[in-house]
Amino acid sequence: MPNEVIAIACDHGGFEYKEILKSDYKKMGYEGADLGCYDDSSVDYPDYANKLADAIKDGLAERGVLVCGSGIGISIAVNRHLHIRAALVHDALTARLCREHNNANVLVLGGRTTGIAVAQDCLKVFLETEFEGDRHQRRIDKMS
Ligand code: RB5
User: Fold this and answer.
1) For a designed S-S bond to 104, which of 58, 87, 132, 133 qualifies (C-beta 3.0 to 4.6 A apart)?
2) Distance from the CA of 70 to the center of ligand 1, in angstroms?
């Protein structure tokens, strides 16, 4: 919901998408916390996954968005944090289901694997879809 703070971070493979997605969610009324990287120089994706996980743990942001080249490395890295449920999605259906069924708190996209229009659609759906709770909460509880 707008007024919510959304943290965003990327490596060099996701830099271009981060800039576009950040501007999209700000236009939708969300607050942004940009944790880097800040240009397309080569960096290590675990560093940015860890920054984003820490921002959510410290209460700086409620949810987050991560982008690397494939989305794979940064999703593996961020899911090592027990308070994170990050979903690497490739279309609007998986973006919706990761919220409804998994209460995902981090959306992950691949800057070299998913077209920008699809990525923008995934972001909108992720931000606007509510968790369904009930049996899905029971399953999430079994992971903590
Ligand atoms: C960086 O070249 C690339 O390996 C990274 O962005 C990501 O795709 C890793 O999973």
Assistant:
1) 87
2) 6
Ligand 1 touching residue 111 (CB < 6 A): no
CA distance 69 to 27: 25
DSSP letters of 49-67? HHHHHHHHHTTS-SEEEEE
Q: Which residue CA neighbors atom 3 of ligand 1 most closely?
A: 69
Give Dmax over CA atoms of the chain in angstroms. Answer: 44
Q: How far apart are CA 136 and CA 107, in angstroms?
A: 18
CA distance 27 to 17: 15
| 44-58 confidence digits (pLDDT tens) | 999 999 999 999 999
pLDDT tens digits, one per residue of 26-39: 999 999 999 999 99
